[in-house]
Fold:
Amino acid sequence: MAPENGRSEEHEETKLPDKDGIDNAGYDLSLLIQNLVIPRLIADRQEPGYRLDEQKQSPRYVSGTSRAITPQDVEDFSLLSTRSDARALLDFVDKCLADGSSVDSIYVDLLAPTARRLGEYWESDERDFVDVTMGLWRIQEILRELTLRIPPPAVAGFGQRSALFSTMPGEQHSFGTLMIAECFYRAGWDADIMIEPSQSELIGKFAGRHYDLIGLTVSLDCPKATLTGLVSAIRSVSSNPATRIMMGGRVINDDPGLIEQCGADATAVDAPSAVILADHLVPLKADTFESLI
Structure:
């Protein structure tokens, strides 16, 4: 699953601006890392032929109990990413998985907060540019390796339902969009992604393909009329008149009432909750053979 704007064949050097430049522009470095650097890492995660360790076999994770990722795990993993190589980080992740943590939890509760924590390290001068850059590069390796070693499980109806996840036109805060699309994909949905589309590009996507669901990430303040107009336009051109529209992100979390006001269908506070809600909004169709009995 790759973003609409494609995947680069070569890795470009990641550069962080100086602190004064960030302050003058009004940016928060943790958001810069979260929304600009990590999306590239995720988008590049399926480079052909990549292996962290060609000789290592995929482990079998067996656990009778589930284990939640804790804030201390995030702190330990963040520090480890600045000090050790990627194999040490992979051992940490393997231990979490063996103890019962889900892959989705590794993505949402460990890797994403670690990226934000690295940004905080740099902002507070706890770690320098090299430490932060190397930490992000090592997280890149872990993302790739997890996808290769632990593919999405076979689930009933895999690929039967389709969804498109997109940032709001004009927004660059794409990390949340990429992460939620990955969770839907692993839950059996056919998930597409659009990053930084224009409104015409987003609307045109619906005119050309049937989607059961759209998920919009709203990270920046915008007029209610803008959200209402976009929802109305999607419904008017969609090739599926029953398309469900979900919204999330900071703006919606701050004011959930916007969902009803702009005519969308639902919202959820995080990716796992969104998958559960979407499963109710768009239930699996009955098996064709069963329907004939």
